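Lab notebook, bench 4. The sequencing result for the construct came back, and we need a structural model before the next group meeting so we can plan mutations. Quick request posted to the team channel:

Model the 3D structure of this chain.
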Amino acid sequence: MKKIVYLLSVLLLLASCSSENHYLVKGKIDGSDSITFYLQKREAGKLVNIDSAVSKNGSFTFKGGAVEYPQLVQLVAGDTRKRTSFYLENSVIKIEGTLDSLFKAEISGSAAQDEYRTLIDANKSLTDIYSGIIAEYQQASKDGNSALLSVIERKADSVQNEMLKNQKNFISDHPASYVTPSILSSISYDMEAEEIEGMINKLDTAIAALPQMKALKERVINMKTVATGQKAPDFTMNDVDGNPVSLYSKVGSKLLLIDFWAAWCGPCRRENPNVVKVYAEFNKKGFDVFGVSLDQKKEDWLKAIEDDKLTWTHVSDLQYWSNSAAKTYAVSSIPSNFLLDETGTIIGKNLRGEDLYNKVKEILESK
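Done. Here's the predicted structure in token form:
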């Protein structure tokens, strides 16, 4: 009898161990019959498929080998924009919802996902407020009410700051969470190198050693080389006529703005009129712009230059986010800019709208 009990216990142990050596995702999405669903994750800045399954009567299953650690993935419905994100780990994960609102699907069975849900819940009231602000902004933009737009932008900034505070608190309170790397990476775009480095140093050593954190550490190193007070690294790229132009061939004017942008970037196009205004007023007093495009198609790049009346020097290698200068300058979002003095020293970063105008005016009028 003892032998039978022992064998049963061994079998149960093996079964429990094997269930932890792979992931099993069970989907039940109403209205999705015969649709191919994909599991995707981000690698080297691109989304890649890691699994696929065809839905039968709204049900589908993914079963794969062990994942090294919980990681953020996307469930995508065919070639549509319908998708939802969740943390994939070695467990049985259930996803239930409807195709038309896939982003609202209920996800259970992932401990990391449950941790992420605490952050989502903490930000829910702010997210609702922000959605209303976006609607207000769109209406004010449609009406051409520039005064109201400024008020709405300030409201949006205030809500964003509160959401950012919640995210930073999550990182501080969850130093050993597999969710933390994704959160820290997402908010790092508006942080200085020292703050990012400080937060990384407070993480559990196992979390700090993850590939996502290693990539962020490398970016911090780059960020330090282009911090305010540092000499701007030189680079050379082709201009609109295919001629190579180096950054330092333009340095020497009292102020030079390296402006990273792209034709496909909506916020960049909305910011362009502000740069045009500053250039028009201060160019003859020593202000110049060196535009670096993250475009892929030359025709789109050239058309945007013409449409937005950007009359300064422009360069690009047409490599999108693989733009070599953008990598050197640790640019992870656009628009992004660096203001240089006549020696090529960085004296300002990411100055937009009135901030750019006031900074340029202050410096040039003091010389």
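The longest helix spans residues 111-143.
Will bring this to the meeting.
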